[in-house]
Amino acid sequence: MRSTMAERQDIGLWLRVGALDKPRSFERNAAIRKCHRGAEVWGYQWASLISGDRSRDKVEARQIIMKYLRESQWTYKDIGIFLGNRDHATALYGAK
Question: What is the model's pTM?
Fold first, then answer.
């Protein structure tokens, strides 16, 4: 099956961040390290990324992290807690 342009862009993004390691690891510590590394690659301090700032670029970065964590079998509640004590519904919306 052919991959769409959006799928290729998503894969490229995860490769730059280092989230598509081979073999793929779903351990919590590995996922946490990859999220921190992604924030550094995008040029954000982790504390500023999980703050209450609603600027568009930080919101999108948080949503990408939420999607990655959900694909790594994290619960929405755990994702919300990890990203600054947010509600599970925020993580649900962000992962979509």
Answer: 0.70
